[in-house]
Every structure is written in C-alpha cells, then in structure tokens.
Amino acid sequence: MNKDHKFLLVEYDGWPYLELIIFPGIIKHSTMADLPGIKRVGAAGFVNTKKTGCYGQSDSLGIDSMPEWSTPVLRKLFEKE
CB under 8 Å to 54, separation ≥6 — which residues? Predict the structure, then answer.
C-alpha cells in the first residue's frame, strides 16, 4: 500500500483559482471529487511524504497528476515565508 498522501487540484464553483486538496491515501480520489462545490478536477495523484512533488495518477478518476501544474502549487503551499 502506498503510504503517501493523495491530492486533487480542483476548481470550485464561483472561485477563479485552482486549489490543491491533500488527503490521506486511504480515501479514494473519486470520493473527494464528489465533495460539494467542486466544479472540476484538473489533476489527481499522489504527494510524496516530503511534500516536494506530485506524481502518478488517479485510477478511480482516470486523471493524471499533471506534475508540471500540481508540483509548483504544492511547493508554494509549503514554502516558508
């Protein structure tokens, strides 16, 4: 079993930006994608335990992690000010 966390890069209804949602690996991507307010999923995959990159794909959604988009968002989220 993969011990890394999963993520979705999503667009919410009425929100002009993509948001990164990180959640435990035991939860399916498709379960999180069904949360209220999510308009679309732009990328889905895994976040390594050091939170330095995104990789893989979601089997339940059939969507790639798109690391060229999702990794910079992840790094910005965890960068120190």
Answer: 7, 43, 45, 46, 47, 65, 66, 67, 70, 71, 74
Question: What span, in angstroms and rounded, lies between the C-alpha atoms of 40 and 44?
Answer: 11
Tell me the pLDDT tens digit for each residue of 25-56.
999 999 999 999 999 999 999 998 676 789 99
Q: Centre a 10 Å sphere on the Cβ of residue 69 and count the other Cβ atoms it contains.
A: 16
Identify the domain containing residue 52 by its residue range. 5-78
pTM of the model: 0.85
Count the domains in the chain. Answer: 1
